[in-house]
Amino acid sequence: MNDTVKSLYRGTIFPIEKCGMNNNEIKELTKLLNTTFDKMRANLSKIHAELLEELEEITVKLNMLYNEEFFTEGFKLGFKLATESLLT
Question: What sign does the dihedral 54-56-57-61 (CA atoms) show?
């Protein structure tokens, strides 16, 4: 465990990069989302395209914050489970 903690601290492992890598449904939905955004951009006026871009940026930031919270809570829960299993 010591090596894992050090690697996490040093930034040599990135758990978020592994999320969804092997999930074909996530890959397909991501592809569909990107295609749909591209089609939408192509049919919008300049101002509407800019608003769509702004909306997309806000959505990405919000998702990043949610993912950080999910990771943190999951990590805490995992640690509590591990601690309780050792104390029981």
Answer: positive
Instruction: Write down the pTM of the prediction.
Output: 0.67
**What is the Cα–Cα distance from 21 to 43, expressed in whole angstroms?**
31
- Please report the DSSP string for 2-55 in residue order: HHHHHHHHHT---HHHHTTTT-HHHHHHHHHHHHHHHHHHHTS-HHHHHHHHHH
Residue type, position 25, single letter: E
What is the model's pLDDT at position 87? 86
- 70-75 CB contacts, 8 Å cutoff, 24+ apart: 71/15, 71/16
